[in-house]
Amino acid sequence: MGLFDSLAKNALGGMLGGKQDPAAMLSGLLSDAGGLQGLMDKFKGAGFGDHFSSWVGTGENRAMNVDEMQNAVGMDEIQRLASKLGMQTHTVLPLLAQFLPQVIDKLTPKGMIDENHPSGAQIQSVLTSVISSSLGGLFGGRR
User: The pTM is what?
Assistant: First the structure.
C-alpha cells in the first residue's frame, strides 16, 4: 500500500469517527441486505433501482441526494450504521450518498454482479481506491 493509499484509508477512518473499520461497516450493510443483489433489490423496492443499476453498469453513475439515500437504505439501517460509527445520522447520510455509488461501481467492474458477497479485503481495497480518487481530486488529480 502506497503512502497516498495509507493517507486515504486514514482519512476515511477519520471521517467515519475512527470507531469502526469502514470496510467492516460496509460489509455489515451488505450482509444485512443479503449481499449486493439484496442491496440492489432493496433499492429497487424503494423506487431507486435505476440508480443502483447505473452503479453496477459500465456507464455513468446516477447520483443520489441524502433524502433519496435515506429512503432507499431505510432509516433503521442508517441509524444502526450511525450508532456503530458513533456518529449522527445527518453525518452518515451524506457520506453514503457520496461514496456508495462509487463503491458499488468498483465492486462490479464488469457491469454486473459477479460476486454477491465481496470479501472484506475487496471492500477495503475498493474503499481505499475511492477515497484516494476523492483526495486526489483535492490535489489536482495528482498522486
Answer: 0.80
By the 8 A CB rule, do 62 and 101 touch? yes
72 CB neighbour count, 10 Å cutoff:
23
Cell of residue 12, nine digits: 476515511
Per-residue pLDDT tens digits for 17-61: 555 567 777 888 888 889 999 999 999 999 999 999 999 999 999
Tell me the one-letter amino acid at 108: T
Q: How far is CA 69 from the centre of its chain?
A: 11
Helix, strand, coil tally for the chain in percent (to 5): 70, 0, 30
3-state secondary structure of 34: coil
